Amino acid sequence: MLNATGGRLVPLDLPPAHRPPPTWHHAPVLRHEPAGDRYRFLRLHAPTIATRAQPGQFVMLTAARADETAPVLPRPMAIYDTAPEHGTFDVVYGVVGGGTRRLATFAEGETMLATGPLGQGFHLSAPSRVLLLGRGIGTCSLTMVAAVNARLGGTTIAVLSARHPGAMIGGDVLRRGGVEHLHQVTDTDGTSAPGFLSTLLNSTLDADPPQLILTCGAQRLTDLAAELGKRWDAEVQVSVEAHMACGLGYCHGCSSGQRSVGAEAPLVCLDGPVFRWAPADG
């Protein structure tokens, strides 16, 4: 079982009809360029994925070209944004290993095998006041929320956290989505410290608190979300990052609990990556 401060993370347990069926595309690369000073931005043309994707879902991208046998395993990437009217979706990723180094070599005009949308995304079922807490590359799981929440008639407040301003991502998509307030905080000026954020959010939101808190990217933000959820009696949903081999639930390599301890814990790719935070006594 996944642990959070004073509580646990449990599957949302939504009916299968809530989740769109995945598909695959040999997707043309339309854009591929640096994003800030740490990441890369990738736009692929895959109309079915672009139309079906929900906030918090992900895709599996194959780093091997059609005539290559390696890397064998695809890489999971959060869906950063979609443009269904153009049949495109975007991802932002960091180059951290052999697979992502190979992904970074794809040029505009080439095709990349993409499978998705995958996983259980965030559950937005009614007009809500929503708070987003994202850090680093984890922010990519949250960026589609503002636009979807706005279409439902809700309002969104967002906190984006990064090591320094050059590593900040997500603000452009959230602004296009109609976010009401956007706080961008960094380690370099101390504004990303949990104590500072707790004081800021308590002082600005206590009078009109959110009903739903969504987070991804750092344990300290999960802890903060749990604290704020208790304070405001708000539901908390957490997107969990994990290494994956298939992304479809076949290999069981992304079990969220300890290995060889009792029954298998929920799978991050199939039961998540979004889980609900529940108090330990709940």
Notes on the protein architecture:
The chain is of the alpha+beta class and 282 residues long. The chain is 18% helix and 32% strand. The chain has helices at residues 47-52, 98-103, 145-152, 171-176, 194-205, 219-232; strands at 2-4, 7-11, 23-35, 39-45, 58-61, 75-78, 81-83, 88-94, 111-118, 129-135, 155-162, 181-186, 212-216, 235-239, 274-279. The strands form two sheets. An eight-stranded mixed sheet has the order 1-2-15-14-13-10-11-12, sandwiched between helices. A hairpin with a 4-residue loop joins strand 7 and strand 8. It starts with a strand and ends with a strand.
Q: What are its keywords?
A:
single chain, 282 residues, alpha+beta, Rossmann fold, Elongation Factor Tu (Ef-tu), domain 3, 2 domains, eight-stranded mixed sheet, seven-stranded antiparallel sheet, 6 helices, 15 strands, 32% strand, globular
List the helices and strands and how they pair.
Layout lengths: L1 E3 L2 E5 L11 E13 L3 E7 L1 H6 L5 E4 L13 E4 L2 E3 L4 E7 L3 H6 L7 E8 L10 E7 L9 H8 L2 E8 L8 H6 L4 E6 L7 H12 L6 E5 L2 H14 L2 E5 L34 E6 L3
Parallel strand pairs: 10-11, 10-13, 11-12, 13-14
Antiparallel strand pairs: 1-2, 2-15, 3-4, 3-9, 4-8, 5-6, 5-9, 7-8, 14-15
What can be said about this structure in brief?
The protein is α+β, with helices and mostly antiparallel strands.
